[in-house]
Amino acid sequence: MTWSQVDRDELLIRSGKDPFVRFATSHELVAVAGPHGWACASPWRPGSRHWGGAAVVGPDAPADAETAALRAIALAAPDLALEWFSTEDGRDLALPPAYLGTGSGRWSFMWCERTAAAVDPAGLAAQGLELVELADDADADLLDAFGRTHGEDPYMGFPGHGFASLWLAARDEVGQIVAVGALHELGSGMPHLAGLVVRPELRGQGIGALLTEALTARAVQEAGVSTLSVFTSNAGAVRLYERLGYATAHRFLTRELAPAGPPG
């Protein structure tokens, strides 16, 4: 399969304005397209660090189509250090010599463009809750401790790293934080839901849904879209996001990458 290098404008056309291309890539990208699909690599975060990529091909594509696409990207940008590369789940990928695989995971890229209204403060008050904004820098230790205590360790919200344009926290009647979540800025400039954690003993009460709805509303009002990534196996979270207006663009199998380095 022959892959030809294209710019982002051509990639949008060749991909049919794919949501991943529209919302997760900027003009700072390396992209290729061919008769069976497209592939690209771009900064996941603003600036030149944290590059990732994806290849999407049709069902009639050769089995090695994504492998050839990644090789074409590596040839076009030999100094590029990709941190991850995704294919549609179920597709094979052989890494070029420049990269080593360090892990993999299955996750879904989702987006929402609906017109969202802000969460009604009266509805929050009826549950004894209020939403407050926290600062990515000044409140980093608080956010990190909450995330590691009640969610993941390491906490994937990355407070204090400058990734977040907005942090929201839900507080109860005595001022105790019961949930947090953020909007990160992608390399495209679009907002991306991240770092959502609810205290375990309070899950299932709709607090996470309220916080997600509030963050989504802010993203859609300010940027026209909200995006997120969720582990595909987290069926409950996927159902929640779909109920709030999100649609799944891709169910990806993502390979984490590291430079192979010079020969020993």
TrEMBL record:
Name listed for the protein in its UniProt record: N-acetyltransferase domain-containing protein
Sequence ranges assigned to domain N-acetyltransferase in this UniProt record: 129-264
UniProt entry tagged with the keyword GTP-binding: no
Matching InterPro entries: Acyl_CoA_acyltransferase (IPR016181), GNAT_dom (IPR000182), NAT_camello-type (IPR050769)
Example of a GO MF term: N-acetyltransferase activity
Keywords: Transferase
Gene3D superfamilies from the UniProt entry: 3.40.630.30
